[in-house]
Amino acid sequence: xxxxxxxxxxxxxxxxxxxxxxxxxxxxxxxxxxxxxxxxxxxxxxxxxxxxxxxxxxxxxxxxxxxxxxxxxxxxxxxxxxxxxxxxxxxxxxxxxxxxxxxxxxxxxxxxxxxxxxxxxxxxxxxxxxxxxxxxxxxxxxxxxxxxxxxxxxxxxxxxxxxxxxxxxxxxxxxxxxxxxxxxxxxxxxxxxxxxxxxxxxxxxxxxxxxxxxxxx
Length: 217
Hints:
Layout: E1 2-9, E2 18-26, H1 30-36, H2 46-59, E3 62-68, H3 70-76, H4 82-97, E4 101-105, H5 111-121, E5 127-131, H6 134-137, H7 139-163, H8 174-187, H9 199-215
Parallel strand pairs: 1-4, 4-5
Antiparallel strand pairs: 1-2, 2-3
C-alpha cells in the first residue's frame, strides 16, 4: 500500500507563498522515515531542516510541493474561505502522489470534517486520516512538514534578497509591520508577494491614512 503524508508551511504569514508538501512511500518502508529521526519542522534549526529534507527526498518513493502565491491566495479568498483553499491544495498534492492512504495535518478545527472534504475533492479514491498536530504524531507528516518549510524558506530568502529584510513575514512580527508601513507610505500600494486580503494589510492602510489626516490638523 502506498502511504502519503501532507503538511503546509506558510498558511498564516502576510508575506510570501504558502507551500503544501506531500511525500509518498510504500507502507512496508515507513520504518525508513522513522529511522531518519524526523521531527516537527518547527522544532528544528534551518540547517537541520535542510539536511533532513535531502535525506527524506532520497528515502521516499515520491514527493510533491504545491506553491500557492500571495496573489493566488488573494484571488481564491474572493470566492472561498481559507479552510476551503487548504482543502483544495491538499487534494491537489494527493492527486499528484496518488496514495491509497493519506495522513494530513488538519487545517480545520474539526479534523474529521477536513479529512472528509479533502477526500471528496480528490479525483482518485483515497483513505484519509486528518489529525491536529499530525506532524508530531506521524513521522510521514513530519517529513512533509520539513520539505514544505525548506521550500518556503528558499522562497522567502529570494524575496529578502530582492526587497530587503521584512522579518519573518508574520503579522505578529514588528519588523514585518514596519516593512509594510514603509512600503505603503512610499508606493501607496503593496507588491504581489504581500497578501492583500489579510486584515494586517487593511490595518496598515487604515493606520497610514489616519496618520496622514492627523498631519493636516
